[in-house]
Design a protein that fits this description.
- This protein is α+β, with helices and mostly antiparallel strands.
- Helix content is 31%, strand content 15%.
- The strands form 3 sheets. A 4-stranded antiparallel β-sheet has the order 6-7-9-8, covered by helices on one side.
- The longest helix has 16 residues.
- It binds zinc ion.
- The site of zinc ion has 5 residues, from strand 7.
């Protein structure tokens, strides 16, 4: 059991991060990360929704969810540690320990292997992130003096990220540069064959910001 806890702590230290921007902040804070995947799987908290206004409470401060996110709260399924599989570290950025839902694991590995055979070296930068983890990202950035409105331009509010489903993947680099890579061109051509879809494509009907690096497993 001790080994497992130790393993989980180590895993949490390198747990996935969505943006290079966030990565930078995180790298300075890695030593303070003590959450485990199991802790992350605890029930969500502090998200309040009423018919008038959606809000999120971080560090005791109430923040209004901006209009583009209203109505887009992602309801996380009840997940357990055994529902997840680790993505092979040879395919993760900096060999990080990154987890994805078991149902999406094999299709993802097949996608990564197929890309590799064609000379495309896709690296996963992030996959499963709990609402609690997403909130921790915000806390760190707020603590560094960033404003909620600024952070929300790059990071989905806690409770609104598709990563809580355990099926979404961010490829490296998870920022606007990804759209210009051969990796992205390959995914556009082949991602769907493996059941992965670009959720926030360039001209998505949700009118959300384009996230070329973010792909979600739907089905094969
Ligand atoms: Zn993402």
């Amino acid at each position: 059991m001790h080994f497992i806890i130790h393993f989980l702590h180590r895993g949490a230290v390198f747990f996935p991060i969505v943006l290079v921007l966030v990565s930078t902040v995180m790298s300075a804070c890695n030593s303070s990360v003590s959450a485990t995947l199991q802790e992350s799987l605890s029930p969500s908290e502090n998200i309040v929704t009423d018919e008038q206004q959606e809000i999120v409470v971080i560090n005791g401060t109430t923040h209004k969810i901006p209009p583009q996110w209203i109505g887009k709260k992602v309801i996380a399924p009840e997940l357990n540690y055994s529902d997840f599989r680790q993505i092979p570290v040879k395919y993760t950025h900096k060999g990080s320990k990154i987890y994805i839902l078991a149902t999406a694991h094999q299709p993802l590995v097949e996608l990564l292997q197929a890309a590799e055979k064609e000379g495309i070296t896709l690296q996963v930068e992030s996959a499963y992130r709990s609402e609690r983890y997403q909130k921790r990202i915000f806390k760190r950035m707020l603590d560094k003096g960033r404003t909620f409105d600024d952070i929300i331009r790059y990071v989905a509010p806690p409770g609104y990220s598709q990563h809580v489903l355990g099926t979404a993947v961010d490829f490296f680099p998870s920022n606007w540069r990804f759209a210009d890579t051969p990796d992205y061109a390959w995914l556009r051509e082949n991602g769907r064959l493996f059941g992965f879809e670009e959720t926030y494509s360039q001209f998505n009907s949700m009118k959300m910001q384009w996230e070329a690096w973010h792909w979600n497993f739907i089905e094969k």
